[in-house]
Amino acid sequence: MSVSVKKVTEPVLIGEGPHWDAEAQALYFVSIDEMTIHKYVPETGLHTKTKLDGRVSFIISLEGTTDHFVVGLERKLVIIKWDGGEGSKVEIIKELAEVDIELPTNRLNDGKVDPKGRLFAGSLGQMTPSGEFEKEKGSLYRLDERGCVKLFDRVNVSNGLAWDLKEKAFYYIDSMDYKISRYDYDVESGNISNKSYIFDFKKNEVNGGPDGMTIDTDGNLWIAIFYESCVLKVDPRSGNILDKVVIPANQITSVTFGGRNMDTLFVTTASLNLGEEQKPPCGATFMVTGLGVRGHPDAKFKLPANY
Questions:
Q1: Is 164 annotated in the active site?
Q2: What is the pLDDT of residue 130?
Q3: Which of 246, 251, 235, 250 has its CA nearest to residue 288?
Q4: For residue range 250-304, what is the model confidence (pLDDT) as tens digits?
Q5: For a tag on the chain, would you pick the N or C end, based on fewer CB atoms within 10 A?
Q6: H or E element, residue 207
Q7: Contact 105, 126 (CB under 8 A)
């Protein structure tokens, strides 16, 4: 089966945070600076969006509902209600936490839910017009029934998150490290420990920066490469690059698996002018089929009873 890359949405400014809802058979994603959340249904081709009152960095379905989501909104973790309709009103249901209070110009970035339903979300500092971020201003947080806990700080650009239950591993990307970190992961507690580096992008002569990330059922990582027009498949156990999928956009931001059989890779991109115009289809979301692998269904957020 040959690999096919198809554009499925019109361009946005910073497409990010793709989340596949298996029950709805829909892809949710955001456009951060445009303050919009999006829904794309592959079986109908319908793409809808609506606007929030701030920069939104991710959208994840809330378990047990069809129209409630947790989003990263500026520096706040918030539960919203959205019916998925074009331009329809978003209701703020509950504010769960505010992070980086001492750093008001920060914002949240990538967020994802672990296999037990806990929310992990990271932050970053301000971006300059050239696309550089303030260094070591971000942190990574975990939110569950114990509250919103800072796991570590001194992060530059908090990005890719993935878990492997078989390997008892949590994989993480700080984009400006140009490396993938591995932590020991305790699924029962959600605790992470023993950081090590398992892949170095510069040593492997990858010129772009690592951004969002997902994992397939074979335990291999799929990483969006910003400024490199591709998604890389990496074996985190051997550190080898196994595959490269070329995407017809320069700024590749994130990836997730979805579709009826969980064998479709959805890829978000950006169209930021950082000294050079990014013409369409830059900024579109793409659908990649024929990879011969499957992903895990994206976990939904379990709202703790004490919230």
A1: no
A2: 74
A3: 246
A4: 999 999 999 999 999 999 999 999 889 999 999 999 999 999 999 999 999 999 9
A5: N
A6: none
A7: yes
Q: State phi, psi for 177 to the nearest 5 degrees.
A: -80, -25
First vs last Cα of the chain: how many Å apart? Answer: 47
Q: Give the whole-number percent of the chain exceeding pLDDT 90.
A: 97
The span from the CA of 111 to the CA of 21, in Å, is 15
Mean pLDDT of 222-230: 98
> How many CB atoms within 10 Å of residue 84?
19
Token pair for 122: 């990271």
Residue with tokens 């959208």: 59
- pLDDT above 80: residue 140: yes
pLDDT grade, residue 129 (50/70/90)? confident
Amino acid at 279: K
Hey, what are 98's tokens?
A: 């505010």
Cα dihedral 259→72→129→134 (10° resolution): -120
Q: What confidence score (pLDDT) does residue 275 get?
A: 87
Number of other CB atoms surrounding residue 61 within 10 Å: 24
Structure tokens at 24: 């709805």
* Residue whose entry in the numeric block shows the structure tokens 């114990």: 146
The answer, yes or no, to whether residue 84 has pLDDT greater than 90, is: yes
